[in-house]
Amino acid sequence: MIALCGCEHCRGKVMLKKQILKEMVNDIQVIRMVVNKIEGDLKIVMVKKQILKEILHNIQIINMIEGDLKIIIWML
What distance in Å separates the CA atoms of residue 3 and residue 41, rounded to the nearest whole number? Predict the structure, then answer.
């Protein structure tokens, strides 16, 4: 830590550095919030994709069963 005298010039420098630091911290917090939001949204999208895949897979299975049932009924 550099010892600064109490003159207006030195106090002004310290205040400026404090302000810049505050702004940097705020920017980092905003960036973190945005990244967390994006990650959260991505997780939701992935879950929805997985659910969709399972639903589509189930529809294919249902269609196969219905098709087989039609064949069985036709054969009977």
Answer: 48
- The type of residue at 39 is E
Given a contact cutoff of 8 angstroms between Cβ atoms, the answer to whether 4 and 10 are in contact is yes
The answer to whether residues 60 and 68 touch, using CB atoms and an 8 Å cutoff, is: no
- In this prediction, residue 73 carries a pLDDT of 80
Q: pTM for this structure? A: 0.49
Task: Dump pLDDT digits (tens) for 6-45.
Answer: 788 888 888 889 998 899 988 989 989 998 998 999 899 8
Tell how far CA 41 is from the center of its chain. 4
Residue 67 to residue 62: CA distance in whole angstroms: 8
From first CA to last CA, the distance across the chain in angstroms is 94
Residue whose tokens read 């905003």: 30
14, 4 Cβ separation under 8 angstroms: yes
